[in-house]
Write a structure and sequence with these properties.
Helix content: 10-25%
Number of domains: 2
CATH architecture of the largest domain: 3 Solenoid
Strand order of the largest sheet: 6-9-12-15-18-21-23-24
Shape: globular
Structural class: alpha/beta
CATH class of the largest domain: Mainly Beta
Strand content: 25-35%
Number of helices: 3
Order of helices and strands: EHEEEHEHEEEEEEEEEEEEEEEEEEE
Amino acid sequence: MATIQQIAIWGAGGHAKIVADTIRRGGQFEVAGFIDDGNPDRAGTIFYGALLYASPRPLLDADVRLLAVAIGDNECRLTKAETGRQAGFVLPAVIDPTAIISDTARLGDGTLVVAGAIINADASIAECAIVNTGAIVEHDCRIEDGVHIAPGATLAGNVSVGSCTMIGAGSTVRNGVRIGRHSIIGVGSAVVGDIPDHVVAFGVPARVVRKIAE
């Protein structure tokens, strides 16, 4: 019988609970503990069924070498992932067993695919992205590092999304659309044309409403 590998979760909020549930349902890994380096006073307490640590060091010392970064902020998630790698962690993709993923789709290190998500043929998802509950990524989409595709969002075929962009819950993106880096698509939007970098866009159809400082 194969030994179940232990994995640390960096983060201790609502998103960390989703990550922990996904890991536990999958049965491939066991949650060794949570890391909350921003609130050291919480260290030593139990969070969502496992011990909380103020830094990754005790987990590394216990020979835990796998890490899932469970932080909703896209840029922060990428930063913590790089910190974890430099410390000696490996970041596997975490996939819910109810997700449907094409054999020809590609998932980068540290990416999370939550319950009910669908990723179709030849879609490519880079590192530390989130494909959240019930989201759909259709054929030939290109999703860059740190993107969050929120619950119930749908990307039609051949959509590209730049790094650290947020696609809001329930949004729909028309086939062939290009969405830039570090942008936000508001909840329930219909994106029918290209969206540039560093903007907020929402509505039906989605329109740019303001710039985001670079």
